[in-house]
């Protein structure tokens, strides 16, 4: 996220190990909200917005042709670093762009 402007969204980037950790932190909430269990659950792309913490939209591969989009907020480490799921969009494809929702 080099050269990221405060309050502005990054372009879509390849997911990192940290992105996957954020996804894992909200997986139980995602499964509860979607009423599905995900055997395959791999972050592939993300966008971020630096605020008083970090907003993220994350594209997650959920097996076969299935993708889901997550809207997540991560607190700053000095505020505990807690990760909160805001929303989930199901029925996404590999080619669906990551928007904000």
TrEMBL record:
It is found in: Cytoplasm. Its main location: cytoplasm. Gene3D superfamilies: 3.10.450.10. Belongs to the cystatin family. This is Cystatin-B. It holds the Pfam family Cystatin. CDD domains: CY. The keyword Lipid metabolism does not apply. GO terms for cellular component: cytosol. The keyword Cytoplasm applies. The gene is LOC117535861. Keywords: Cytoplasm, Immunity, Protease inhibitor, Thiol protease inhibitor.
